[in-house]
Amino acid sequence: AGSSPVVFDKLAKIATIVIAAGTVAGVVGYLITRETPRKMPPVLRQLSEEVVADFSEKLPRNRDVNELLMLVLQRGNRDEEKEFRDLIKDRVRAAGKYKIEDWDDVKKKFDDNLFQKLLEKVGLLGQEIRDLAQAKKVLKLLANTGKQMDGVLLVNVTEFNEGDEGFGAKVALEAEIYSIEKEKTIENVPVLELPERGHWIRLVAKSP
Questions:
Q1: Which segments of the chain are extended strands (E)?
Q2: What is the pTM of this model?
């Protein structure tokens, strides 16, 4: 009977080792088997960076707004499009003209249950914001909770085409800054077309 605690202690150690080994094996298996996200082809990536750099540079400063909810709307959700969306967000934030938050940043400010209730009030439960009308509803509701934002930077990716081996690649954007206080679009970026090494990359930034 005196040896029972020793036996149980050994069994507990063995069980712990088995569980730890299983956990490590599971993590390693996930890392090995998960699919690596695709990347934009080099030509499209380089040209996209140049387009987004110009877009960020030409985005006007407006003293009436400071904190903006940035929405990048795209037709698809392919890995390459996600990469382009992240590129836009990173460059605009780096430009430092406005305090930029995206949809994920806003969600992090609230308890999950409270946030779900807020979305339910505006009919967006289980959905992402897809247009300016929805964004305005959400921001007005957020203002009532003390989470005030000045407006929306809406960037609509209307065209994202890598072309044939990079040739004929096109990117088209429509963008506007909407003021919640003034209830209207207060800024837009002029149309810009960029020919680059025989590949036409088209940047269109304007209010609807």
A1: 67-74, 99-101, 151-161, 170-179, 184-188, 192-196, 199-203
A2: 0.71
144-176 pLDDT per residue, tens: 777 788 999 988 887 787 777 667 777 777 789
The CA distance from 198 to 167, in Å, is 7
- Give the SS3 label for residue 174: strand
CB hemisphere CA count around 104 (13 angstroms): 3
Tens of pLDDT along 56-93? 988 999 999 999 999 888 767 788 888 998 999 999 99
Task: Please answer whether residues 187 and 165 qualify as being in contact, where contact means their C-beta atoms are separated by less than 8 angstroms.
Answer: no
Q: How far apart are CA 5 and CA 67, in angstroms?
A: 63
- Separation between Cα atoms, residue 185 and residue 176, nearest integer Å: 7
Contacts of 50 (CB under 8 A, 6+ apart): 194, 196, 201
- Taking the C-alpha atoms of residue 85 and residue 63, their distance in angstroms, rounded to an integer, is 26
Long-range residue pairs from 132-139, CB within 8 A, at least 24 positions apart, any chain: 132/71, 132/176, 132/178, 135/69, 135/71, 135/178, 136/178, 136/180, 138/69, 138/106, 139/69, 139/180
206, burial (CB in 10 Å: exposed 0-12, middle 13-18, buried 19+): middle
